[in-house]
Design goal:
The structure is a single chain. With about 140 residues, this protein is an alpha/beta fold. The protein has six helices and five strands, in the order βααβααβαββα. Helix 1 crosses helix 2.
């Protein structure tokens, strides 16, 4: 079962910082790489990914960052979102919200580590919640539900 998801930058940072393969963010990126999650992004989001993931303070391996970003670009969907008029606590989160709203007709999710920065909506989830959603959809697909 394939799902569309807008991935907040903090999820990527968390995955790259993690030393645990069983961390929800690491598993989420694994499912993105395997094609189970189709990333949805805008030019603004991609610019933020590049800027944040290349910050010297993180000391991320440039090849790993490049691989992740090129996988998102290659297998993802670039959208030009419409303005929603929504006001969020952190204005830098608006591009993520507007992109997910642009793809809601495709049942897209917004995956973030900062739920409090967004409206309480069932399609705005943590990495762990997204993994559960994927597993439930996969189970439903195999059982014919």
């Amino acid at each position: 079962m394939i799902c569309y998801a807008v991935i907040d930058t903090n999820v990527l940072v968390s995955a790259l910082l993690s030393y645990r393969k069983d961390a929800a963010t690491v598993q989420l990126i694994g499912r993105l790489i395997s094609g189970e999650i189709i990333p949805v992004f805008s030019e603004k989001i991609m610019l933020e990914y590049q800027e944040v993931l290349n910050r010297k303070k993180f000391k991320f391996e440039p090849n790993m960052v490049g691989y992740l970003l090129s996988a998102i670009e290659k297998y993802g969907i670039l959208v030009e979102p419409s303005a929603t008029g929504v006001i969020l606590p952190d204005i830098k989160d608006l591009p993520f919200y507007e992109v997910v709203m642009e793809k809601r007709e495709d049942d897209a999710y917004l995956v973030t580590g900062n739920l409090k920065h967004f409206p309480a909506e069932p399609f705005i989830v943590t990495a762990r919640q997204m993994l559960t959603i994927l597993d439930e959809k996969k189970t439903a697909q195999y059982t014919g539900l």
